Amino acid sequence: MSNRSVKSLRINGEVQREMSIILREELKDPRIHPMTSVTGAQVTNDLKYATIFVSVLGDEKDKKYTLEGLKKSASYARHLLATRLNLRNTPELIYKLDESMEYGATMSKRIDEVMAHDHEVSLARGDENPGTEEE
Q: Is the dihedral of CA 25, 28, 34, 37 positive or negative?
């Protein structure tokens, strides 16, 4: 692993941490849903752009309004980030919705439903130990 990649990982982590604090404590736009969290940050090597991944716990309308609010407050958030981090350039912020947590919760729910269905089928067949596989 080269020094550059370690540096990039450290910068990404710092930007994510600071943006999480800024989003939680500093941004007061009413469109930003209170259950919004920063799940990741990816800064380009030249420090010109930072993609901020956010997760919003809410419906599609909440997600849309939250992204609008974040985009409108991006210059203020960038200013706050510049005062907190000592970087050569303060990156321009680009927000993207991270739906991986929601996808994971949906898949977990589906797996639970399949397991419950398999258990019911095993009981209906009269298997001795439903839920355990026999080889």
A: negative
Quote the pTM value: 0.74
Residue 20 tokens read as 């999480």
At residue 38, the 3 state secondary structure works out as strand
Do residues 58 and 35 touch, judged by C-beta distance below 8 A? yes
Residue 127 has pLDDT above 90, yes or no: no
Structure tokens at 22: 């800024």
Q: Which pLDDT belongs to residue 19?
A: 96
**Percent of residues, the chain, with pLDDT higher than 70:** 91
Contact residues for 29 (Cβ-Cβ < 8 A; gap 6+): 69, 70, 72, 73
